[in-house]
Amino acid sequence: MKVFPISVPTPFYVGPVNCYLIVDDPVTLIDTGPKTKEALEALKDGLRRAGVRVFDIKRIVLTHAHEDHCGLAKQLRDEAKDAEVLIHGWETGHHAGRLEYDKHRALLVRAGVPDDEIAAMRRMYEGVRQYADALEDHEHQELIDDSEIEFATGSLRVVHTPGHTPGSCSFMREADRTIFAGDCVLKRITPNPILSPDPIDPTKRFRSLEEYLVSLARVRSLSPTLVHGGHGDAVTDFEELFNRYLRAIRERQAGVIKLVPKEGATAWDVAREMFPHADDVHRFLAVSEVVAHLDLAHTESKIAVELSGEREVYRRP
Ligand SMILES: [Zn+2]
Ligand SMILES: [Zn+2]
User: Fold this and answer.
1) pLDDT digits over 240-265, tens only?
2) Cα of 205 to ligand 1 centre, how many Å?
3) For the whole prediction, is pTM greater than 0.85?
4) How far is the CA of 232 from the centre of ligand 2 (A)?
5) Structural domain range at position 51
6) How far does residue 315's CA lie from ligand 1's centre (Å)?
7) Cα–ligand 2 centroid distance for 20 (angstroms)
């Protein structure tokens, strides 16, 4: 099971994305890069260096449905004559192009985001969508937690690691406990828990940070020897990263709680206070992060929340 990392450029702030080509039977690609000319060229270049053509790809495995990771999946699938595409079922709404605008909108309203900001976020998201083709239902199969993705000379175990997105998955090579983690584990930055509807009850909010903490603990319990993240260098010392992430999450939580006034504030108020210079996509990421931290703080009984009209208002007890 030979693994070739391929760095693929993206038009996003995060920089290049890591895709992984596994040359074995069947030839498998983990993540594809966004749908841009530059990304496709870089990917084909990487394939060539490994002695593989697009036509040889038999299987595409997606860590999650963000455009920088899944954008070329449909195009490659078609070019490779119906290669199998695997993605977790909780990534619907993205991969099928059925963006749940109404549900997202309700979550943003509840977080106190003003109408004009919601409209701007939607326009921005329309812009991002061009970097991925949607997959129809019959064009992909579901990744099942704890199942094995089989190869002639080994296998990858599917480890559902929700948090960054509800359906984020990692893949562990049993032979040497190497993990491909997508955006669940990034060496230099703590991944953003993105505000999204709960896949089981879309009228509710997905408890992204709480789920993420469970996922981190699960990865830790697998004692990985090496973790390949979706961006940046591989992580050789997961224990160090785990402790660093926990500290960063606790520090951020304390910072968020400190910004909640006695008289109450929405998540949007706190996000604007915490990240006053955030613009464009960063305003959405800022409110996502604050909501995630407020949810966790509420679960831990550190703050109170009540509904005021359509908005949730947080108070420090
Ligand atoms: Zn992502
Ligand atoms: Zn990413």
Assistant:
1) 999 999 999 999 999 999 999 999 99
2) 18
3) yes
4) 10
5) 2-315
6) 31
7) 14
